[in-house]
Give the backbone structure.
Amino acid sequence: MSALTSAVRPTLAKPCTASRARAQARVASRTARPAPRQAVVAAVSPVEVAQVAGEAGFIGGTAATMFGMTLVGLALGFVLLRVESLVEEGKINL
């Protein structure tokens, strides 16, 4: 082994028993006491509840509009499928 490789290679010396015991005690002290679990309680004021309740009409109207748009899109899609099948059968010339 050359002097260069021995200088780069770390030594494999074992730590003394006192330092090993301290390291094990640190690990044991970290793992021995788990963090206490507490339930999260959200503080909701009546004003916030009233604001959300006031938006119910807007949310319902938006949902109905989106549902209607979806139904119209499905209807148009099925019409296009029917037209395509009629064109392929030769009943309609486009």
